[in-house]
Amino acid sequence: MKTLALPCGAMVPLCLVQRVSASAVVYPVGSLHKTVPRRSACCKVVSTKAAAFDDVFGFSAKEEGSGIENAGGANAARAKRSNWRQGGLVITLILSSVVFIAFIFVDSLLWRAVRRSSATFLLTAPFVCSLVATGCLGSYCVPLLAKLKAQQIFRVEGPASHLSKAGTPTMGGLFFIPVGVGVARAATRFSSTEVAGVAAATLVFAAIGLLDDFLSLAKKHNYGVPGPFKFLLEVVSGVCFFFWLDSAGLPSPYKVYVNVSSSLADIFSFLFFGYRKNLVPLPPPVGLWNIGKWYLPLTAFCFAAMANGVNLTDGLDGLAGGTAALAFAGMAVAVLPIYPALGVFGASMAGACVGFLLHNRHKASVFMGDTGSLALGAALAAMASCTGLFLPLFIASGVFVIETVSVMAQVAYFRYTKRVHGTGRRLLRMAPFHHHLEHLGMEELHIVAGAYLVSALLVTFAAHVGLISA
User: Fold this and answer.
1) Residue 151 pairs with which residues in a beta bridge?
2) Measured between alpha carbons, how far is 153 from 151 in angstroms, rounded to an integer?
3) What DSSP state is assigned to residue 32?
């Protein structure tokens, strides 16, 4: 959770701010180099030109009031916070139970089909191991991050209620991403080439996010790596993953043969990209679709889009972690007919996300930061790139897609109305979409629960699409 209006690192809002007002500078609360103390009541916007940012993305903190309102006295406030914590725990337990039962069901069907001991708990075992390991490791890492003062830095353009979260430790991806990757590698006995490649891509994006988080802490503001440069790193990493995939020689059930009647474009695609990497499985009656040279830009696009999509969604306690856990669960089932080892990877990452929710649920004691959000998006994109299951990926990641589209629509509408009417207007009260819902009066916990429900329905459909496509 990098920013309130938009998480740090999203290229579109950063570029937009620079274009709307090249001289607009918004400094953190208090002095120029001081983090907001936890549960601070108000903030100051130093620059007089910062209103341009508010006009594009939503209301400023002043429109929300002076800060955190009294909830009828200290006792009532404590009781309310206790109820919200219990509500966050209940939602997390329901989510973990749903994923666990789904994996048990899939494993039972898989065992009946192959009758092998290795299929008994193929998905359930790595899910449980990652969940327990992440939950236990977080109990030590979260206090350590707080002791190191790796605290989240906020902007003031979002809902004022979020100012109470200032000072919460960030960079939680440092402990739950390695657990998900490590359990998957161990469960596949370090022998799966596809899991090794996907794990490497995940760690590369975690390193990009770690660099951004570190620079943000060092500079005492929430702009670490410049947006365009970060976007370039994401695209280049996606391109490198494609070329690794093309040269890895992974076994595949899909083969395409070029014959005399093939077009010159098909022959060139076959010679340059190989016989397998350019195939995208789609539901019947379409079947396998040979997209040829477009596989490379599609892979690069998925890496950048998914990484920033998860980053944008990481704006409420437990929102990104829970929806990512469901997305990994859906992709784990979808890829089973092609690469069962990648199913193990997806289950392990789902368990790591749920284990992280034990510390990130409302009210969060730690945030994942770009270290976690970029890595999660890259892991999902890598699973789709290895199998060609891009359609199930976009369906399972529906919440991330909605959040990203809401930002793009907000920016496009503001620019259009400014060009036509001379004054920019907002399509939403604030972007991304979860902040718009907050401004409509919805409680944070209700928004997260609704997102889980929507994501669960989309993930179920995505798993079905993946299975019938493969």
Assistant:
1) 169
2) 6
3) T
Distances (CA, A) of 437 to 8, 430, 441, 449: 20, 9, 7, 13
Rg of the chain (C-alpha set): 22
Greatest pairwise CA separation for the chain in angstroms = 82
Half-sphere exposure of 294 (CA within 13 A, CB side): 9
Pull the structure tokens for residue 111.
């065992």
Angstrom distance (rounded) from CA 327 to CA 332: 8
**b/e sequence 358-378, b meaning 16+ C-beta within 10 Å:** bbbbbbbbbbbbbbbbbbbbb
| Residue entry with tokens 């370090």 | 190
Distance from CA of residue 90 to its chain's centroid? 22
Residue 2 backbone dihedrals phi, psi, to 5 degrees = -85, -45
Question: Which amino acid would we find at residue 114?
Answer: V
Evaluate if pTM is beyond 0.70. Answer: yes
193-219 vs 340-360: helix axis angle to the nearest 10? 30
β-bridge partners, 280: 289
**Tokens standing for residue 116:** 């092998």
- Annotate 282-326 with DSSP letters as a single string: ETTTTEEEE-GGGHHHHHHHHHHHHHHHHHHHTTSTTHHHHHHHH
Helices and strands, number each (H, E), in the chain: 16, 2
pLDDT at 58: 54
How do residues 154-179 score in pLDDT, each as one tens digit? 665 556 666 677 788 999 999 999 99
Partnered with residue 430 across adjacent β-strands are 58
48-52, 112-116, 409-413, 442-446: least confidently modelled range: 48-52
